[in-house]
Amino acid sequence: SLPDKYLWDFWLVEESSDYHLFYLQAPRSLKDPEERHWNVSIGHAITRDFGTV
């Protein structure tokens, strides 16, 4: 997890030996957590073994 972000709605895409992890993210600095739905962006990470995302 990222201490300064809300993370939710994960999805995976397998490509060759890599896995692409996508997720929705928003800053935790928002005063109202419900505002995360209006301040969202897509995060992305790549791993081969899920131990090194």
How does this model look, in words?
The protein has no helices and three strands. With 53 residues, the chain is an all-beta fold. The protein has one domain. It has a three-stranded antiparallel β-sheet, with no helix packed on it. The relative contact order is 0.28.
Short description:
This protein has 53 residues and is mostly beta strands. It is built from no helices and 3 strands.
- Note the beta-strand portion: over 45%
Tally the helices: what do you get?
0
Lateral strand order in the biggest sheet: 1-2-3
Q: How many strand elements?
A: 3
Task: Assign a percent range to the helix content.
Answer: under 10%
Question: Structural class, please?
Answer: mainly beta
Global mean pLDDT: 92
What is the total domain count?
A: 1
Radius of gyration from CA coordinates: 13 Å
SSE topology string: EEE
Highlighted features:
three-stranded antiparallel β-sheet, single chain, mainly beta, 53 residues
How is the secondary structure organized here?
Blueprint: E1 5-15, E2 18-27, E3 41-47
Antiparallel strand pairs: 1-2, 2-3
